[in-house]
Amino acid sequence: MFLNYFKITGLAMAQIFFLGALGYIFVKKNILSHAGLDALSRLVIQVIFPALIFTQLLQNFSFSLYPDWWIFPLISLAITVSGLIIGWLLLKLLKLKTHKLQFLSLVGFQNSGYLPLALAAAIFSGQEAGSMFIYIILFLLGFDLVAWSCGIYMLTYEKEARFKLRSIFSPPVIANLFTLALIALGLNKFIPYAVFKPVEMIGNCTLPLAMFVVGGNIGLVQLKDIDKKTVSFFILGKLIILPAAGIAIVLKLGLPYLLGFLVIMQLAMPSATSLSVIIRHYKKEDALISQGVFFSHLVSLLTIPLFLSLYLAMAVLK
Fold first, then answer.
1. What does the alpha-carbon distance between residue 121 and residue 130 come to, in Å, rounded to a whole number?
2. How far from 260 is each of 116, 143, 187, 252, 266, CA to CA, in Å?
3. pLDDT tens digits along 187-218
4. Where residue 106 sits, what CATH number does that domain have?
5. What is the DSSP letter of 271?
6. To 5 degrees, how large is the angle CA 297–CA 271–CA 240?
7. DSSP assignment string, 160-219
8. How high is the mean pLDDT of the chain?
9. pLDDT beneath 70: ranges in the chain
10. CA 154 to mean position of chain CA atoms
11. Cα–Cα distance between 53 and 30 in angstroms, integer?
């Protein structure tokens, strides 16, 4: 049974890897310039991904179907806090003298949107796929609020720095809140098909283009003076301890199948590629971020199928 699930999740990861590899190769071969990748990334974040959120929520979400929708942002917060705690404990063992906040960011913030959406689309179908999309989108509501506020603050920390409220309202967060408000007020019923359909077509481009952007961002990573010990500790915490602990807790709590899958999938994700984007944008020293993003995505090609297969096999047996 485990081998069967490993084959399913492994094939899903292979499809995602192929899309990401195209972006990686195009950037490495300079077919896609840095400026071109930045423009594509902005297009995905500001237009295409919000369109997906808008149409998926309108199609599949209602407050009667998901009365506990508010739990998902809280789960995302709990997962981020768990990652930061594990990172802090590993720092105590590692005795890292500098760049502690970069290490914590790598363990605390995962590729929580694009990769899980692509993985869910490759593994599930029909109603299960629709439910997983809603779970991930609601999860991102909490994650984005934290990642684009605390995450930026941690990576750009300066004593005189001030928290900016507007930084947390990224286009995906605005799309999420706006669409939930439309549904709550019943205004979603008045959106004409002639408007909905083209927006849906735009949103359907999210997954391939997003993985293309992820691969391209990894292609921009500059690997030099690799700190093998620090990377090993980081990989241990991010890709092994977190998902292993997650499986134990999810099975102990007896969470519903799809909800448990969401939790394990998010815990098994590699570090967010947006961390390297933030470092580049704010012109901060990239001591660990590029190494962490690159190696976590590389190792996760094995660890994601491993832990998802373990969860699926153990959940069925239970």
1. 9
2. 14, 17, 32, 11, 10
3. 988 999 999 999 999 999 988 888 888 888 88
4. 1.20.1530
5. B
6. 75
7. T----GGGG--HHHHHHHHHHHHHHHTGGGG--HHHHHHHHHHHTTHHHHHHHHHHHHHH
8. 87
9. 157-168, 280-283, 286, 317-318
10. 18
11. 32
pLDDT of residue 160: 43
Helices and strands counted in the chain (H then E): 16, 0
Q: Strand, helix or coil at 110?
A: strand
pTM: 0.88
Residue identified by tokens 């809140």 is 177
Provide the domain count of the chain. 1
Instruction: Select from 113, 115, 109 the least CA-distant residue to 20.
Output: 115
Residue 9: C-alpha distances to residues 1, 258, 270 (Å): 13, 15, 16
User: What's the token pair of residue 233?
Assistant: 């500790």
C-alpha 311/C-alpha 247 separation (Å) is 6
pLDDT at 157: 66
For residues 186 and 236, what is the distance between their CA atoms, to the nearest angstrom? Answer: 47
Domain membership of residue 142 as a residue range: 2-317
